[in-house]
Design a protein that fits this description.
Length: about 170
């Protein structure tokens, strides 16, 4: 079976901030995930991306740019949207990152897309409807919004942990 990290495609939908893209590249590389797809791209400042990526600029240089989310998801066996919101129109159960990453390892061979929305608005209901499932990262009710790169880091960390089959860490036993 192929290493799960090699099967993951991180998809950013219409990201606004070049700095966030650079930080996403760094988040991905620290966890051994290399496939980045940017759907609905705009013009980005490559110097800012390179500065923020800190030795992970190759992730951006090798990124695929897709005009639509539909095209970004082509060829995947599973696509999972990320969202902190629940609603009546959300068709799927929301999974915790660790639950979904365990499921990734039990899917057929093929690429899996983890989809992240725009920094200001997240994923729309229409964009989420293109995904097979939803991941939500638990956060404080007082301030539930994560920075894009932080959300990517958390998901990539869980994928890395699952790929390494690392045992749980027990405090000073």
């Amino acid at each position: 079976m192929t290493d799960i990290k090699k099967r993951i495609r991180i998809v950013l939908v219409h990201p606004d901030e070049s700095g966030n893209i650079g930080a996403v590249c760094r988040s991905m590389k620290t966890m051994g995930i290399e496939k980045l797809v940017i759907a609905e791209p705009q013009e980005y400042d490559r110097k800012v991306i390179e500065y923020m990526s800190v030795h992970a600029f190759d992730i951006f240089e090798n990124a695929v740019f897709a005009p639509t989310l539909e095209e970004a998801l082509e060829g995947t066996v599973m696509s999972v949207g990320t969202s902190r919101r629940e609603g009546k129109k959300r068709k799927y159960r929301t999974f915790l990152p660790e639950e979904m990453c365990e499921r990734f390892c039990h899917t057929d061979e093929g690429e899996i897309a983890v989809v992240f929305g725009n920094e200001k608005h997240g994923l729309t209901d229409k964009e989420l409807s293109l995904c097979n499932a939803v991941i939500a990262i638990p956060t404080s009710d007082d301030f539930p919004s994560l920075n894009l790169s932080h959300a990517v880091q958390i998901i990539c960390y869980h994928i890395f942990r699952e790929s390494q089959k690392l045992p749980p860490v027990h405090a000073f036993t």
